[in-house]
Amino acid sequence: MRLRGLLHLARQDLAADRRGALLNGGAVAVGAAALVFFLALGAGVTQAARRVFPSDARLVEVVPPAVSLSGVLGGGRLDDATLARLRALPGVADAWPKLALRVPLAATRAPEGLAVNWPPSLVIQIPALGVPRGLVAQDLPPGAPFDDPGPGGAIPVVLSRRLIEVYNRTIAPAWNVRRLPAGPALVGLQLPVRVGFSMVPQKTEDRVYDGRLLLAGLSDRVPLYAAALPLEAVRRLHREYGKPDQGYTAVTLLAAAPQDVPGVARAVRRMGLAVDEGERASAERVGAAVALATGGLAFLALVLCALAALAIAQSLFASVRARAKDLAVLLAVGARPGDVRALLVAEAGLVGFAGGVLGALAARLLALAADAALARALPDFPFRPDTLFAFAPWMSLAGVAVATLAAALGALAPAAAAARIEPARALS
Protein backbone atom coordinates (compact mmCIF):
# COMPACT_ATOMS: atom_id res chain seq x y z
CA MET A 1 0.00 0.00 0.00
CA ARG A 2 1.36 3.40 -0.98
CA LEU A 3 1.99 6.08 1.64
CA ARG A 4 -0.56 8.46 0.15
CA GLY A 5 -3.31 5.85 0.22
CA LEU A 6 -2.28 4.75 3.70
CA LEU A 7 -2.58 8.29 5.06
CA HIS A 8 -5.92 8.75 3.29
CA LEU A 9 -7.36 5.65 4.95
CA ALA A 10 -5.90 6.70 8.31
CA ARG A 11 -7.57 10.12 8.09
CA GLN A 12 -10.89 8.52 7.17
CA ASP A 13 -10.71 6.16 10.14
CA LEU A 14 -9.88 9.03 12.50
CA ALA A 15 -12.75 11.10 11.13
CA ALA A 16 -15.10 8.18 11.79
CA ASP A 17 -14.02 8.14 15.45
CA ARG A 18 -13.57 11.86 16.16
CA ARG A 19 -14.22 11.55 19.87
CA GLY A 20 -11.54 8.93 20.43
CA ALA A 21 -9.07 10.82 18.23
CA LEU A 22 -9.68 14.06 20.15
CA LEU A 23 -9.24 12.36 23.52
CA ASN A 24 -6.02 10.66 22.44
CA GLY A 25 -4.73 13.84 20.82
CA GLY A 26 -5.50 15.80 23.97
CA ALA A 27 -3.60 13.34 26.12
CA VAL A 28 -0.57 13.57 23.84
CA ALA A 29 -0.85 17.38 23.69
CA VAL A 30 -0.63 17.61 27.49
CA GLY A 31 2.62 15.66 27.52
CA ALA A 32 4.11 17.63 24.62
CA ALA A 33 3.08 20.96 26.15
CA ALA A 34 4.63 20.03 29.49
CA LEU A 35 7.86 18.96 27.82
CA VAL A 36 8.25 22.15 25.75
CA PHE A 37 7.12 24.36 28.65
CA PHE A 38 9.62 22.94 31.13
CA LEU A 39 12.51 22.94 28.66
CA ALA A 40 11.88 26.60 27.83
CA LEU A 41 11.51 27.43 31.52
CA GLY A 42 14.85 25.83 32.35
CA ALA A 43 16.59 27.67 29.52
CA GLY A 44 15.00 30.98 30.53
CA VAL A 45 15.94 30.66 34.20
CA THR A 46 19.49 29.74 33.16
CA GLN A 47 19.73 32.91 31.05
CA ALA A 48 18.39 34.99 33.94
CA ALA A 49 20.98 33.45 36.29
CA ARG A 50 23.75 34.30 33.83
CA ARG A 51 22.72 37.94 33.96
CA VAL A 52 23.17 37.90 37.73
CA PHE A 53 26.39 35.82 37.65
CA PRO A 54 28.05 36.49 34.27
CA SER A 55 31.09 34.36 35.01
CA ASP A 56 33.59 33.53 32.27
CA ALA A 57 34.21 29.79 32.08
CA ARG A 58 37.90 30.35 31.26
CA LEU A 59 38.82 32.74 34.08
CA VAL A 60 40.50 31.73 37.36
CA GLU A 61 40.79 34.34 40.13
CA VAL A 62 43.96 33.90 42.19
CA VAL A 63 44.20 35.59 45.60
CA PRO A 64 46.70 35.43 48.48
CA PRO A 65 45.93 32.62 50.92
CA ALA A 66 44.26 33.33 54.25
CA VAL A 67 47.30 31.71 55.92
CA SER A 68 50.58 32.30 54.14
CA LEU A 69 52.91 29.32 53.74
CA SER A 70 55.30 31.15 51.47
CA GLY A 71 58.35 29.85 53.26
CA VAL A 72 57.36 26.25 52.57
CA LEU A 73 55.53 26.37 49.25
CA GLY A 74 57.02 29.47 47.66
CA GLY A 75 53.69 31.31 47.48
CA GLY A 76 51.72 33.74 49.61
CA ARG A 77 52.61 37.10 48.02
CA LEU A 78 51.38 38.16 44.61
CA ASP A 79 54.32 40.03 43.12
CA ASP A 80 55.87 40.18 39.67
CA ALA A 81 57.83 36.97 40.26
CA THR A 82 54.68 35.10 41.27
CA LEU A 83 52.85 36.62 38.30
CA ALA A 84 55.51 35.24 35.96
CA ARG A 85 55.17 31.77 37.54
CA LEU A 86 51.40 31.88 37.19
CA ARG A 87 51.66 32.93 33.55
CA ALA A 88 53.97 29.98 32.89
CA LEU A 89 51.58 27.35 34.30
CA PRO A 90 50.39 24.70 31.80
CA GLY A 91 47.01 25.61 30.36
CA VAL A 92 47.32 29.35 31.11
CA ALA A 93 46.92 31.62 28.07
CA ASP A 94 47.36 34.95 29.90
CA ALA A 95 47.52 36.49 33.36
CA TRP A 96 46.32 39.94 34.47
CA PRO A 97 47.28 41.40 37.87
CA LYS A 98 44.84 43.48 39.91
CA LEU A 99 45.80 46.12 42.46
CA ALA A 100 43.31 47.69 44.88
CA LEU A 101 43.57 51.48 45.13
CA ARG A 102 44.40 52.45 48.70
CA VAL A 103 43.93 56.20 48.08
CA PRO A 104 40.31 57.23 48.72
CA LEU A 105 38.21 58.54 45.83
CA ALA A 106 34.88 60.29 46.42
CA ALA A 107 32.25 61.76 44.10
CA THR A 108 30.36 64.80 45.36
CA ARG A 109 28.75 65.94 42.10
CA ALA A 110 26.86 64.42 39.20
CA PRO A 111 28.72 63.37 36.04
CA GLU A 112 29.38 66.23 33.64
CA GLY A 113 26.78 66.39 30.86
CA LEU A 114 24.29 64.12 32.63
CA ALA A 115 21.19 65.77 34.07
CA VAL A 116 20.78 64.03 37.42
CA ASN A 117 19.22 65.54 40.53
CA TRP A 118 22.21 64.96 42.78
CA PRO A 119 20.96 65.07 46.38
CA PRO A 120 22.60 67.82 48.47
CA SER A 121 25.56 66.76 50.62
CA LEU A 122 25.66 63.35 48.93
CA VAL A 123 29.11 61.77 48.87
CA ILE A 124 29.75 58.46 47.10
CA GLN A 125 32.93 56.61 48.00
CA ILE A 126 34.31 54.84 44.93
CA PRO A 127 36.23 51.59 45.47
CA ALA A 128 38.76 51.22 42.66
CA LEU A 129 40.87 48.43 41.29
CA GLY A 130 43.85 48.81 38.97
CA VAL A 131 43.87 46.38 36.02
CA PRO A 132 45.88 46.10 32.80
CA ARG A 133 44.19 46.96 29.52
CA GLY A 134 44.20 43.32 28.37
CA LEU A 135 41.63 42.31 30.99
CA VAL A 136 38.95 44.69 29.66
CA ALA A 137 40.17 45.22 26.08
CA GLN A 138 37.35 43.14 24.59
CA ASP A 139 34.76 45.48 26.14
CA LEU A 140 36.37 48.79 25.16
CA PRO A 141 35.11 50.68 22.10
CA PRO A 142 37.66 50.96 19.26
CA GLY A 143 40.23 53.60 20.12
CA ALA A 144 38.95 54.06 23.67
CA PRO A 145 41.70 55.16 26.07
CA PHE A 146 42.70 52.99 28.99
CA ASP A 147 46.12 54.24 30.02
CA ASP A 148 47.40 56.44 32.82
CA PRO A 149 46.84 60.05 31.63
CA GLY A 150 49.31 61.41 34.17
CA PRO A 151 48.69 64.14 36.78
CA GLY A 152 45.74 66.38 35.95
CA GLY A 153 44.29 64.13 33.25
CA ALA A 154 40.93 62.34 33.28
CA ILE A 155 41.55 58.76 34.44
CA PRO A 156 39.77 56.18 32.26
CA VAL A 157 37.50 53.85 34.19
CA VAL A 158 35.55 50.69 33.30
CA LEU A 159 32.45 49.78 35.30
CA SER A 160 30.46 46.60 35.65
CA ARG A 161 27.49 46.36 33.30
CA ARG A 162 25.42 45.16 36.24
CA LEU A 163 26.04 48.41 38.11
CA ILE A 164 23.77 50.30 35.70
CA GLU A 165 21.00 47.77 36.31
CA VAL A 166 21.36 48.04 40.09
CA TYR A 167 21.28 51.85 39.95
CA ASN A 168 18.24 52.00 37.69
CA ARG A 169 16.23 49.48 39.70
CA THR A 170 17.13 50.54 43.26
CA ILE A 171 18.97 53.84 43.69
CA ALA A 172 17.12 55.88 41.06
CA PRO A 173 13.63 55.09 42.45
CA ALA A 174 14.82 55.68 46.03
CA TRP A 175 16.28 59.09 45.17
CA ASN A 176 13.39 59.94 42.84
CA VAL A 177 15.80 60.68 39.98
CA ARG A 178 15.67 59.57 36.38
CA ARG A 179 17.23 56.32 35.29
CA LEU A 180 20.46 56.16 33.35
CA PRO A 181 20.31 55.42 29.62
CA ALA A 182 21.70 52.25 28.03
CA GLY A 183 25.34 51.51 28.80
CA PRO A 184 26.95 52.56 25.46
CA ALA A 185 25.28 55.98 25.70
CA LEU A 186 27.17 56.63 28.95
CA VAL A 187 30.65 56.00 27.52
CA GLY A 188 32.61 59.24 27.47
CA LEU A 189 30.97 60.80 30.53
CA GLN A 190 33.28 62.43 33.05
CA LEU A 191 32.71 62.27 36.79
CA PRO A 192 34.32 64.93 39.03
CA VAL A 193 35.97 63.29 42.05
CA ARG A 194 37.93 64.34 45.11
CA VAL A 195 41.20 62.40 45.21
CA GLY A 196 42.32 61.67 48.75
CA PHE A 197 38.96 62.52 50.33
CA SER A 198 37.07 59.94 52.39
CA MET A 199 33.63 60.11 53.92
CA VAL A 200 34.98 57.95 56.76
CA PRO A 201 36.32 60.07 59.65
CA GLN A 202 40.12 60.24 59.93
CA LYS A 203 40.58 58.43 56.60
CA THR A 204 41.00 61.54 54.46
CA GLU A 205 44.57 62.05 53.22
CA ASP A 206 46.58 65.19 54.06
CA ARG A 207 46.46 66.16 50.40
CA VAL A 208 43.07 66.39 48.63
CA TYR A 209 42.64 67.64 45.09
CA ASP A 210 40.03 67.62 42.31
CA GLY A 211 40.24 64.97 39.63
CA ARG A 212 38.09 63.39 36.93
CA LEU A 213 37.12 59.88 35.93
CA LEU A 214 36.32 59.18 32.27
CA LEU A 215 33.95 56.27 31.60
CA ALA A 216 35.76 54.24 28.94
CA GLY A 217 33.47 51.21 28.82
CA LEU A 218 31.40 48.58 30.60
CA SER A 219 32.51 45.01 31.23
CA ASP A 220 31.40 41.81 32.95
CA ARG A 221 35.02 41.23 33.99
CA VAL A 222 34.87 44.13 36.43
CA PRO A 223 33.51 43.43 39.94
CA LEU A 224 30.12 44.92 40.73
CA TYR A 225 31.52 46.70 43.79
CA ALA A 226 34.54 48.45 42.20
CA ALA A 227 35.63 50.63 39.30
CA ALA A 228 38.51 49.40 37.14
CA LEU A 229 41.30 51.94 36.56
CA PRO A 230 44.49 51.51 34.54
CA LEU A 231 47.05 49.65 36.63
CA GLU A 232 49.70 52.32 36.09
CA ALA A 233 47.30 55.05 37.30
CA VAL A 234 46.82 53.18 40.59
CA ARG A 235 50.58 52.75 40.95
CA ARG A 236 51.11 56.47 40.31
CA LEU A 237 48.56 57.44 42.97
CA HIS A 238 50.23 55.08 45.43
CA ARG A 239 53.57 56.74 44.76
CA GLU A 240 52.06 60.23 45.14
CA TYR A 241 50.63 59.36 48.55
CA GLY A 242 53.54 57.25 49.75
CA LYS A 243 51.67 53.94 49.90
CA PRO A 244 54.04 50.99 50.37
CA ASP A 245 54.08 48.13 47.87
CA GLN A 246 52.03 45.27 49.31
CA GLY A 247 51.89 43.17 46.17
CA TYR A 248 48.94 42.61 43.90
CA THR A 249 45.47 42.15 45.33
CA ALA A 250 44.62 39.36 42.90
CA VAL A 251 45.63 37.86 39.56
CA THR A 252 43.11 36.79 36.93
CA LEU A 253 44.25 33.83 34.83
CA LEU A 254 42.83 33.08 31.40
CA ALA A 255 42.81 29.36 30.71
CA ALA A 256 43.45 28.20 27.17
CA ALA A 257 40.17 26.24 27.26
CA PRO A 258 37.37 25.74 29.83
CA GLN A 259 38.48 22.14 30.42
CA ASP A 260 41.90 23.44 31.53
CA VAL A 261 40.41 25.37 34.47
CA PRO A 262 40.42 22.52 37.06
CA GLY A 263 44.08 21.71 36.34
CA VAL A 264 45.08 25.38 36.53
CA ALA A 265 43.25 25.76 39.85
CA ARG A 266 45.04 22.72 41.29
CA ALA A 267 48.41 24.08 40.16
CA VAL A 268 47.64 27.45 41.78
CA ARG A 269 46.84 25.78 45.09
CA ARG A 270 50.06 23.77 44.93
CA MET A 271 51.89 27.11 44.73
CA GLY A 272 50.49 28.04 48.14
CA LEU A 273 47.94 30.48 46.72
CA ALA A 274 44.16 30.44 46.88
CA VAL A 275 41.46 30.45 44.20
CA ASP A 276 38.52 32.76 44.73
CA GLU A 277 35.51 30.85 43.42
CA GLY A 278 33.20 33.79 44.13
CA GLU A 279 30.57 34.25 41.47
CA ARG A 280 31.74 31.19 39.55
CA ALA A 281 30.73 28.92 42.43
CA SER A 282 27.39 30.71 42.77
CA ALA A 283 26.76 30.44 39.05
CA GLU A 284 27.66 26.74 39.06
CA ARG A 285 25.36 26.04 42.01
CA VAL A 286 22.48 27.91 40.40
CA GLY A 287 23.14 26.19 37.07
CA ALA A 288 23.23 22.75 38.69
CA ALA A 289 19.99 23.43 40.57
CA VAL A 290 18.26 24.65 37.42
CA ALA A 291 19.55 21.70 35.39
CA LEU A 292 18.38 19.24 38.05
CA ALA A 293 14.93 20.82 38.28
CA THR A 294 14.60 21.02 34.50
CA GLY A 295 15.64 17.40 34.15
CA GLY A 296 13.10 16.29 36.74
CA LEU A 297 10.29 18.25 35.13
CA ALA A 298 11.24 17.05 31.66
CA PHE A 299 11.18 13.47 32.97
CA LEU A 300 7.70 14.12 34.34
CA ALA A 301 6.66 15.37 30.90
CA LEU A 302 8.04 12.19 29.31
CA VAL A 303 6.04 10.15 31.82
CA LEU A 304 2.93 12.03 30.71
CA CYS A 305 3.77 11.18 27.11
CA ALA A 306 4.20 7.53 28.09
CA LEU A 307 0.81 7.56 29.81
CA ALA A 308 -0.67 9.08 26.66
CA ALA A 309 0.90 6.24 24.66
CA LEU A 310 -0.77 3.70 26.98
CA ALA A 311 -4.09 5.49 26.54
CA ILE A 312 -3.66 5.33 22.77
CA ALA A 313 -2.81 1.62 22.98
CA GLN A 314 -5.93 0.91 25.02
CA SER A 315 -8.06 2.97 22.66
CA LEU A 316 -6.67 1.23 19.59
CA PHE A 317 -7.20 -2.22 21.12
CA ALA A 318 -10.86 -1.30 21.55
CA SER A 319 -10.92 0.11 18.02
CA VAL A 320 -9.42 -3.09 16.59
CA ARG A 321 -12.14 -5.18 18.27
CA ALA A 322 -14.86 -2.85 17.00
CA ARG A 323 -13.39 -2.71 13.49
CA ALA A 324 -12.48 -6.37 13.21
CA LYS A 325 -14.77 -6.95 10.21
CA ASP A 326 -13.53 -3.82 8.38
CA LEU A 327 -9.93 -4.89 8.89
CA ALA A 328 -10.81 -8.42 7.79
CA VAL A 329 -12.27 -7.05 4.55
CA LEU A 330 -9.01 -5.22 3.89
CA LEU A 331 -7.09 -8.43 4.39
CA ALA A 332 -9.58 -10.36 2.25
CA VAL A 333 -9.23 -7.99 -0.73
CA GLY A 334 -5.45 -8.29 -0.79
CA ALA A 335 -4.04 -6.10 1.93
CA ARG A 336 -1.03 -7.62 3.64
CA PRO A 337 -0.68 -7.89 7.44
CA GLY A 338 2.09 -5.31 7.22
CA ASP A 339 -0.35 -2.89 5.55
CA VAL A 340 -2.79 -3.29 8.43
CA ARG A 341 -0.01 -2.71 10.96
CA ALA A 342 1.11 0.36 9.06
CA LEU A 343 -2.46 1.70 8.97
CA LEU A 344 -2.87 1.52 12.74
CA VAL A 345 0.57 3.04 13.34
CA ALA A 346 -0.22 5.83 10.83
CA GLU A 347 -3.46 6.63 12.64
CA ALA A 348 -1.64 6.89 15.94
CA GLY A 349 1.18 8.87 14.34
CA LEU A 350 -1.28 11.43 12.93
CA VAL A 351 -2.89 11.77 16.34
CA GLY A 352 0.52 12.17 18.00
CA PHE A 353 1.71 14.71 15.42
CA ALA A 354 -1.41 16.84 15.77
CA GLY A 355 -1.23 16.58 19.56
CA GLY A 356 2.45 17.57 19.51
CA VAL A 357 1.78 20.66 17.40
CA LEU A 358 -1.09 21.71 19.66
CA GLY A 359 1.05 21.04 22.72
CA ALA A 360 3.89 23.23 21.43
CA LEU A 361 1.44 26.06 20.76
CA ALA A 362 -0.14 25.57 24.18
CA ALA A 363 3.30 25.79 25.82
CA ARG A 364 3.86 29.18 24.19
CA LEU A 365 0.48 30.46 25.37
CA LEU A 366 1.09 29.16 28.90
CA ALA A 367 4.48 30.90 28.94
CA LEU A 368 2.89 34.21 27.92
CA ALA A 369 0.28 33.83 30.66
CA ALA A 370 2.95 32.97 33.26
CA ASP A 371 5.08 35.97 32.28
CA ALA A 372 2.07 38.28 32.50
CA ALA A 373 1.16 36.94 35.95
CA LEU A 374 4.73 37.30 37.24
CA ALA A 375 5.00 40.84 35.85
CA ARG A 376 1.97 41.81 37.92
CA ALA A 377 3.02 39.91 41.03
CA LEU A 378 6.76 40.68 41.24
CA PRO A 379 8.11 44.13 42.13
CA ASP A 380 10.77 45.84 40.04
CA PHE A 381 14.19 44.63 41.22
CA PRO A 382 17.67 44.39 39.70
CA PHE A 383 18.09 41.75 37.01
CA ARG A 384 14.38 40.94 36.97
CA PRO A 385 13.94 39.12 33.66
CA ASP A 386 11.35 40.25 31.15
CA THR A 387 10.53 36.59 30.58
CA LEU A 388 11.25 33.35 32.40
CA PHE A 389 11.24 31.36 29.18
CA ALA A 390 13.68 30.95 26.33
CA PHE A 391 12.11 29.07 23.45
CA ALA A 392 14.40 27.55 20.85
CA PRO A 393 13.13 25.97 17.62
CA TRP A 394 14.49 22.58 18.64
CA MET A 395 12.25 22.53 21.72
CA SER A 396 9.04 22.67 19.70
CA LEU A 397 10.45 20.11 17.27
CA ALA A 398 11.36 17.87 20.21
CA GLY A 399 7.84 18.18 21.62
CA VAL A 400 6.26 17.21 18.29
CA ALA A 401 8.76 14.39 17.72
CA VAL A 402 8.31 12.91 21.21
CA ALA A 403 4.52 13.10 20.93
CA THR A 404 4.53 11.43 17.51
CA LEU A 405 6.98 8.74 18.62
CA ALA A 406 5.04 8.03 21.83
CA ALA A 407 1.78 7.65 19.92
CA ALA A 408 3.39 5.39 17.30
CA LEU A 409 4.97 3.18 19.99
CA GLY A 410 1.61 2.94 21.75
CA ALA A 411 0.09 1.65 18.52
CA LEU A 412 2.55 -1.19 17.97
CA ALA A 413 0.79 -3.79 20.11
CA PRO A 414 -2.75 -3.06 18.77
CA ALA A 415 -1.35 -3.00 15.22
CA ALA A 416 0.21 -6.44 15.72
CA ALA A 417 -3.11 -7.75 17.02
CA ALA A 418 -4.93 -6.29 14.00
CA ALA A 419 -2.46 -7.94 11.60
CA ARG A 420 -3.25 -11.36 13.13
CA ILE A 421 -6.98 -11.16 12.34
CA GLU A 422 -8.19 -14.13 10.29
CA PRO A 423 -10.59 -12.84 7.59
CA ALA A 424 -12.58 -16.10 7.37
CA ARG A 425 -13.31 -16.24 11.07
CA ALA A 426 -13.95 -12.48 11.43
CA LEU A 427 -16.39 -12.42 8.49
CA SER A 428 -18.25 -15.62 9.34
TrEMBL record:
GO MF annotation terms: transmembrane transporter activity
Record keywords, A-Z: Cell membrane, Membrane, Transmembrane, Transmembrane helix
Protein name: ABC3 transporter permease C-terminal domain-containing protein
Record carries keyword Electron transport: no
GO cellular component: plasma membrane
All residue ranges annotated as the ABC3 transporter permease C-terminal domain in the record: 299-423
Membrane-spanning intervals of the chain: 21-45, 289-313, 350-374, 394-419
InterPro entries: ABC3_permease_C (IPR003838), Macrolide_Exporter_MacB (IPR050250)
Domain of life: Bacteria
Compartments it resides in: Cell membrane
Pfam families registered for this protein in UniProt: FtsX (PF02687)
Family statement: Belongs to the ABC-4 integral membrane protein family.
Organism: Anaeromyxobacter diazotrophicus
Membrane topology per record: Multi-pass membrane protein
UniProt key word Cell membrane: yes
